[in-house]
Specification:
This protein has three domains: 95 residues, no CATH class; 87 residues, no CATH class; 64 residues, no CATH class. It is 46% helix and 13% strand. It has ten helices and eight strands. Strands 1, 2, 3, 4, 5, 6, 7 and 8 form an eight-stranded mixed sheet that branches. Strand 7 and strand 8 form a beta hairpin. Helix 2 packs antiparallel against helix 4 and helix 4 runs antiparallel to helix 5. The chain is elongated and about 95 Å long.
């Protein structure tokens, strides 16, 4: 059949010619090759991805810090409640650990890259949510004037039963943003007084832990002024802090003779509250030894 086809085309070789095998001259560069995977995973690309992640984290942490320090924990409440460690953990996880993991795992050639990044973001969000929830539960919800001092009270310190008993008391309602400055008036019933005294001795829960006893701070202004101390005593207790006391007095906008102070007690430290000597209005708070 091959001979007939060749004969029909009039290219049959003569008897004197040797038949050479046909060779196919093909340029190897013309053969299509499979596409190479895109470059990825280099140090520069990893640093770029980690840097972008870091910028996002800084923006989120900046917003959270503005809420925590600007609203929930106005100065010097973080020191009085001892929340510095929790804040540093939140910042460390979201600003350091997250971008570091991105630097380690980022490689565009990895088929599971999106899953890896989603896992990192999910862990960061979980840690951030836990930290924010903890800070919100431990925030200074109430600053309560009790007898001769102010007490810092967080929502975590108030029992559900006591909050339920105070549900009709408008002074016991939480402000979602800032601490509330109120007073606590001891009960007049002798049995209730004895019960609170016994609870204070056995469990450390005093009048300030009973929100049904909360009243408007202005209604206890006379009692606050009666127990308030002069600034000269504050200077004597803080001999190396006279410059801070001068600055605190200057910020109040009142002359020193028109100011008094009351101690401020928190779970992790003590401070000082400056009040107006005429109406007991709070004009300043500082980390100064009060007693």
């Amino acid at each position: 059949m091959l001979r007939r086809v060749v004969h029909d085309r009039s290219i049959e070789p003569s008897s004197g010619e040797h038949t050479r095998p046909m060779t196919l001259n093909v340029d190897p560069l013309a053969v299509p090759r499979p596409p190479e995977p895109p470059a990825g995973g280099g140090l520069r690309e990893r640093l770029r991805a980690a840097g972008l992640h870091l910028l996002v984290c800084l923006a989120v942490v900046g917003l959270v810090s503005a809420l925590v320090f600007g609203a929930w924990y106005p100065s010097p409440m973080p020191q009085l409640l001892g929340v510095g460690a929790i804040i540093w953990i939140v910042v460390g996880v979201d600003v350091v650990v997250g971008p570091l993991f991105t630097l380690i795992v980022y490689d565009r050639r990895k088929p599971r890259l999106k899953w890896d990044l989603a896992t990192i973001f999910a862990l960061q969000l979980a840690a951030l949510a836990y930290g924010v929830h903890t800070l919100h539960a431990g925030r200074p919800a109430f600053v309560v004037m009790v007898k001769d001092r102010f007490e810092v009270i967080s929502p975590a310190e108030l029992r559900k039963a006591d909050l339920e008993a105070a549900r009709d008391n408008p002074h016991a309602r939480f402000d979602p943003i800032r601490p509330r400055w109120i007073a606590a008036r001891p009960p007049t019933d002798p049995k209730a007084q004895l019960a609170i005294a016994f609870e204070a001795l056995t469990h450390g829960r005093d009048v300030q832990h009973h929100p049904d006893l909360y009243v408007d701070y202005a209604s206890e202004a006379a009692s606050a002024l009666e127990r308030a101390l002069p600034i000269s005593r504050l200077r004597a207790l803080n001999p190396t802090q006279h410059a801070r006391i001068d600055a605190l007095v200057a910020r109040s906008g009142l002359p020193e003779a028109s100011l008094r102070y009351l101690p401020l007690r928190g779970p992790a430290g003590d401070g000082t509250v400056l009040i107006d000597a005429t109406d007991a209005r709070v004009v300043g708070v500082a980390l100064l030894v009060p007693w």
